[in-house]
Specification:
By secondary structure, the protein is α+β, with helices and mostly antiparallel strands. 23% of the residues lie in helices and 14% in strands. It is built from 3 helices and 4 strands, in the order αααββββ. Strands 1-4-3-2 form a 4-stranded mixed β-sheet, with no helix packed on it. 10% of the residues are buried. Bound molecules: zinc ion. Zinc ion binds next to loops.
């Protein structure tokens, strides 16, 4: 979904489920029991993880961009225990 379409949907107040990472079944089954698959991480996500730049937050916190709870945001490919927020931050719920 491109950005213009996304903004149009927001403009008309149409709720969409935030899911930035599309994880196919084949990719999903490459994750370990703990939700890790380092070879699937994007370069940017790997850098964020290497810096240990992850905070733990409540899944009930409300995103200031889409007004949904953090738990309604998508998982991160390569680290399923992480959640990607609309502003690009990676958090642990
Ligand atoms: Zn959001």
């Amino acid at each position: 979904m491109n950005l213009i379409k996304l903004n149009l949907l927001k403009f008309f107040g149409i709720k969409i489920k935030t899911k930035k990472d599309k994880i196919s079944w084949n990719e999903f089954i490459q994750h370990t029991d703990t939700g890790n698959a380092p070879h699937l991480l994007s370069k940017k996500d790997k850098e964020t993880l290497d810096k240990a730049n992850i905070i733990r937050v409540s899944g009930r916190s409300v995103c200031k961009y889409c007004k949904k709870s953090y738990s309604d945001h998508g998982q991160v490919k390569g680290a399923l225990w992480l959640t990607r927020l609309c502003d690009g931050r990676l958090v642990k719920l």
